[in-house]
Amino acid sequence: MIVIRLVDSKRWRIVEVELGHNHPVSPEIKRFYKSHKKMVLAAKKAQQPEQVAEVHTIKLYRTAHVDNGCFGNSNEDERESTRNPIDKPKHLELKEGDAHAVYNYFCRMKLTNPNFFYLMDLDDDGRLRNVFWADARSRVAYSYFYDTVAIDSTSLVNKYEIPLISFVGVNHHGQSVLLGCGFIGNETVEYLIWILNAWLSCMLGPLPQVILTDQSKPMKTAVSEVFKGARHCYCMWYIMQRVPEKLGGLKGYESIRRQLNKAVYESLKISDFETSWADMIKLNGLEDNKWLHSLYEERQRWVPVYLKDTFFLGMIPIQENEALSPFFDGYVHKHTSFKEFVDKYDLALQRKHLREAMADLESRKSSLLLKTKCNFELQLSKVYTKDIFNKFQLEVEGMYSCFNTRQVNVNGPIITYVVKERVEVEGNDKEVRNYTILYETTQMDIRCICGLFNLKGYLCRHVLCVLNYNGVEEVPSRYILPRWSKDYKSNYPLNLGSSSVVSSNPVHWYNHLYSRAIQVAEGGAQSQEQYKVALQELGELFNKLGLAEKNSV
What is the DSSP letter of 494? Predict the structure, then answer.
């Protein structure tokens, strides 16, 4: 083993040399060695000179799970009928220059950033089947934002040239944050399990509590195998985006669309949804529609009325006019090649990181504009980041569209209230809706039938009305999530699973140092005097660590 470090653009330094093997050596596993693969590939190339293929000679690991014919994707009926698993290649279809571009990028990142992580999966012929990677920022971000994770397979759904899968969380501003990504050679259970395990193998901290994916049988099986304790849900936005494609050719489509939207977005009770759905099916003669039947069979995974006990942090839309965008939206299109994506990857992340940094600065420096005299608004203007506060502020303003808060039942410490609200419906008309709130007075536990707190992560206008009705002047602390606070990263300790002091894992060291460095950066940015102090101390630290020759402060 040889460890080398890039000193500058033209020089390398040998850091460590280990002449002995650092892994078991056995003739039975000789086919995994780089030298053996080169000989095998050379022999095959001599036998088939007409084939030109780029092949890497590194094999990290493969899953032992074998898929028994479970092919397809989110549009199960369509994809399983149009895709022939025999004809579908079981490796990445790379063009000339793609493989070298991807592999060279990984090598460059690994040398300049030891905490860059990647895995490659090759078949017995040396062809690249799957690849996964995560940079240091993504690995640290997971330690903070691991609770709810979306697995974005937009490129697979839309059959892009690159079969990209992205792992995405949401940060303290409510912005999407990348937690790793990869390319998958075939959309089978085996390959999906490989990439899910690859992702988990490089992340520190607890497993996600909620996994969001597109509707897909292979993905459903893979998630249940890898994330045994997580709640697996389908992203409603992806499903509703397919309504024109799936139902657009039906007679009375506009009426069907309105009835579907009403059932999905406006149902406050499960019985409301069941009734609205049944009416839609019966009135339009849709009993034999396979797509709607499949959606109904799995309604508990995607319809909001069934998911009010699940913590989504705003990662699913709950209103018809809400939209979601893939993390790499604007950087990837249908014909983007592997090489082009690698070139754009850093640019995309730099812009996302800049956006987060600007949001951090605005949240710390800006004096947030108050629009009411409500104390709830004043209280959380001092706590929430600017973006989250703006969303909560809409709920405070929405209190003025609510009226007639009244107590309807008392059962020991649990009091039931009903709040009326005028809401806009299609065509700018307004209707009055009743919202039921349960208030447990001893523990200050309060829940609204709209479920906004679990779906978005902050209290709704109906709950605020009940608290105000009872003379409560501040939002109870249990309903102020630390992950939305301005100082979340600097104040919240990383959950690393073990002490970062006694751990021998360099990734633990990195994450711990990274969290401390954030505190230094935030403190140094408070004033010009503190900035100079921080800069001087960092300069001395660079000298002590021998980093001065590689970096200029």
Answer: P
